[in-house]
Protein: Pyridoxamine 5'-phosphate oxidase family protein
Organism: Nonomuraea rosea
Amino acid sequence: MRETPEDLKELQTLLDASLSRSTSHLRSIINTERTLTAKQLTQVLTGMCTLSLSTVTAKGEPRISGVDGHFLHGKWHFGTARGAAKARHLAARPAVSAAHLRGEDLGVFTHGTVEILNPQHGERATDWPYLLAYFKDFYGDDSFDWDNDVVYYRLRPHWMTVYAPDADKLTAASRS
């Protein structure tokens, strides 16, 4: 677990606020018995988690694609090729939705705005050296030309909710 107590508090506040302002239909599916706390969520979302990422084209058409999601410090982080269509979409329209699903056991749904962590010609995020070390450790130091081939993003959520019908089963599996 990489989250600080402040990260967990911020994430729990977001989860609580998101659920409280959701529709009654959603709250009939996701409630306190079928969700995870911030601490439980960070224990379950380790390593790489495939995300379905939704962006929007210049014509306003939605596009969905898969990305390697890493849940670090209570936020999703992901990368793509600098020349990918989603990179163009995100540069022009940084609002996104993302979902991570594990069958019927887990659903993490997020809406927010992305920030570029390693712009090719600009100031990098202050925590980029830490994140770059994490990604190099995960993927291998020589997997990419890290300065030119890939662009990484942090999804700053304004809404996030978690569906987990059996939290005990999920958290037990993450400990084993």
